[in-house]
Write a structure and sequence with these properties.
Strand order of the largest sheet: 4-3-2-1-5
Radius of gyration: 12 Å
Number of strands: 5
Strand content: over 45%
Distance between the termini: 13 Å
Helix content: 10-25%
Mean pLDDT: 88
Shape: globular
Low-confidence stretches: none
Order of helices and strands: HEEEEE
Number of helices: 1
Length: 75
């Protein structure tokens, strides 16, 4: 579920709304190393428009990831 301009703006807006309301609970790391447990999420503007940012745990260690680091978001 990487948004790189290939999706409709409505789908992008729906994704960001779910991020803002911390709807996603898990996601897979793009590098294939496993899954993270998402504890909080929000959007931030990094110059090219809003991007999803996620706080959570991987292998019981806290961390932060952007939507570009993750795929297969689950509720």
């Amino acid at each position: 579920m990487r948004y790189n301009g290939g999706f409709l703006q409505q789908e992008r807006n729906e994704f960001l709304a779910k991020v803002e309301h911390s709807r996603y609970k898990t996601a897979e790391l793009v590098n294939g190393n496993g899954f993270i447990a998402i504890t909080e999420s929000w959007t931030d503007d990094f110059g090219n428009g809003p991007i999803g940012v996620f706080a959570g745990r991987f292998n019981n260690q806290p961390g932060f990831w952007t939507e570009n680091d993750l795929k297969n978001f689950c509720f």
